[in-house]
Amino acid sequence: MSEQAQSKFELGPCDSAIILREDGTLEACMPELGQSDLPENVILTAALIMALQDQEILELLHRKFAESCLENDMEMVTGVNDD
Q1: In Å, how far are 18, 23, 35 from 3, measured between CA atoms?
Q2: With contact defined as beta carbons under 8 Å apart, do 50 and 61 qualify?
Q3: Residues paired with 29 in a beta bridge
Q4: Distance (Å, whole) CA 28 – CA 19
Q5: How far is CA 34 from CA 10, 12, 28, in A?
Q6: How far is Cα 77 from Cα 54, in angstroms, rounded to an integer?
Q7: Which residues partner with 27 through β-bridges?
Q8: How many CA atoms lie within 13 A of 3 on its CB side?
Q9: One pLDDT digit (tens) per residue for the chain, 83 residues
Q10: pTM confidence score
C-alpha cells in the first residue's frame, strides 16, 4: 500500500471496525463491553468476523453480492465470483 493510500481514523468508545488486509488477514477493533450491553454494531462486527472465517457463509455472501450486482446492472468487482 502506498503512503498516499494509508489512512488514520479514530474510533469512539462503542465503535467497532474490521480492516481487511491485502494479504488476506483481518484486523478487528471492538470495545470491551459486558455481554448484556452490546450495541448492534458490535454484534454485527462479531458476526462479520465469524462469516469471514466460515467458507460456506463467505461463498454465500459472494454469490448474493454477484446476484445483486446483476440485478442492479452493476459491474462485478474484481475478485468476486459466483462459482
Answers
A1: 20, 17, 39
A2: no
A3: 17
A4: 6
A5: 22, 17, 18
A6: 21
A7: 19
A8: 0
A9: 455 567 888 999 889 999 999 998 999 998 887 777 789 999 999 999 999 899 999 999 999 999 998 888 776 655 544 44
A10: 0.65
